[in-house]
Every structure is written in C-alpha cells, then in structure tokens.
Amino acid sequence: MPELSRTQVVVYGAIAVALLLVGAQAIRGEGGGSAGAEETTWSDSGDEGAEFELSGEAGDVVVDVTGAVQSPGVYRLPAGSRVTDAVQRAGGAAPKAQLEAVNLAARLADGQQVVVPERGPGGGATTAGAVSEDGPISLGTASVEQLDTIDGIGPVTAEDIVQFRDEHGGLASVEQLNQISGIGPATMEALRARLQP
After folding, report:
1. Residues 77, 82, 85, 89: is their CA dihedral positive or negative?
2. Is the pLDDT of residue 67 over 70?
3. I need a labelling partner for 139 at 20 to 30 A (CA). Which of 34, 43, 86, 197 fits?
C-alpha cells in the first residue's frame, strides 16, 4: 500500500470529521422529531389567560398571539406555520375579530407578534390593529394604506414592504426592512418611530 503524504492525511481526516458531523446531525434530526417529544405548559390566570408552551422540537417558531382571540399568549409552532395556525392555536378568533384585516396566509417568523384586531361598532378595527395618528402600527398586520401614512413611504414602497413581509413569513423586527430597495436611513428612522414588530 502506498504511503500517504501529510497533505492527503489532513484532507482525509477533514473529510472523515465532516462526515461524522453530518451523520450526527442526521441522527439528532431523527430523534428530535419523535412522537414522544416532551411538552411543558405554563398558564397564567391573569386577565388575558396568557399561556406559554415549550416543546423539545428543533426548528420551531415562537409567536405572541394577541388581540381578538380566545386565549392570547405566546405559542410555539412548527417552522413553516402560517398566521392562521397561530390564531387557531390561540383558541380561534373571538366573536368580534376582524380577520379580514390580517393576512392569515402569511408564514410565521420566530419572535413575531400576531395581532388580531377587534371589529368596532361601525365595523372598523378598534384594538391593537387600529391605526391612530401618533400610535405605532403593527408590522405584522399593517396594510398598504397604513404604511402609506408613514413619512417617506409611498404606495409603491408600502406595497414592497407588504410583499417582503409575506414572502419572508412575517418580520421579527423593523431592521429587516433595510433589505428592501428604496428604504434609506431617513426612511428607516421614520419606520422605527411609527412601527412596532
């Protein structure tokens, strides 16, 4: 058998280590998705009945569901879940929920807040999803019209923000909007002042 050079030994060693790491990751991935995953539930008997659930599964997203839902709280859902899944996990929409103001098909992002506005006496939204002149707008549910009210944002940029949010399954922070063309430093300052995650 021919002798290996020092370089060949290093290359073969690196390949062996890489294969071991990939194999360990594959084994860990199979074990993490088992049906017997442990789940812990924490419940607060406060006014809103907040609930927090933990599970041992990797790749999940944790979202805060608030507004006009049966059981507002923080929930862990599988990666790739949609806003509709989060609303259902929170017990479904409350009787006065204005679901048409929320993009139920949007993909969830880790750390996202899902706000379901409540329908007011005249049919308009009255809770956290509502827009006031000076109050912050929820980034997770803002419409093109709401975004258009922010200084430096026109209808085209507002449309780009909503499209970016929908394509990326929501936005965890205002800083992610830096990735949209046409949003410069001055616009980012206006967005930080008027938007909340």
Report:
1. positive
2. yes
3. 43
